[in-house]
Amino acid sequence: MNPFFRFPLLAPASRTIPARSKASARVQVVDVRSFLPQPVISRLESGLEAHCWDQLIAEPEIREVQAQPPVIRYRDARGRLAVHHFDFRALLADGNAIAVAVRPLARIRKYRFEDTLRLIASQLPRSFATRVLLFTDADIPRPEVVPHAPTTRLIERARELGAPMIPAFTHMILA
After folding, report:
1. Quick count: other Cβ atoms within 10 Å of Cβ 107?
2. By the 8 A CB rule, do 68 and 15 touch?
3. Using CA atoms, how far apart are residues 97 and 131, in angstroms rounded to an integer?
C-alpha cells in the first residue's frame, strides 16, 4: 500500500441534496490541501456553488470550508420562527467564521433575498459565524481575469508560484 495515499472522507451535511431536480446540478469537490489530515469530499447543489467553493478555497485566510452547515433558526419579518440553510461556512485562520449564501442574482432581486439575509445576519449566533457573505453569479471571475478559477488545484498552484490574488470579496459582506 502507498504510504502517501490518504482515503478521502465524506463531509457531513445538514441536508440531503435531492436526487432529481430541474434547477440544480450534483457537484462533488475534493479538498486536497496539504494541511488537511485527509482529503474531504463535499457535495454541492449547483455549478454556482462550485464556483463559490473554488474562490473560498483559494482565499489564503480561509482554513476550512464546510458545505451544507447546520441549519440556522431565526424569526422572520412577521415574527414567526423560520429556518435557513447556508450553503457554506468558512472558518478563518483567526478563528472567526463566515456564513455564505449562494444565490443567482435574478432570484435575489425577485425575492428580495438581501433583506431576508440581513434579518438572518442580525439574529445569527456568533458561535456559528461573525459575518455573512452573499455570493452571486455576478461574483464569478471572468475568464480573461482569472482563467483558472473553476479549478481549485490550479488556483493553489498559481498561488504557490506567486500569481496575483483576486482581491477579497469584502464588498459583498453584509454583516
Report:
1. 12
2. yes
3. 7
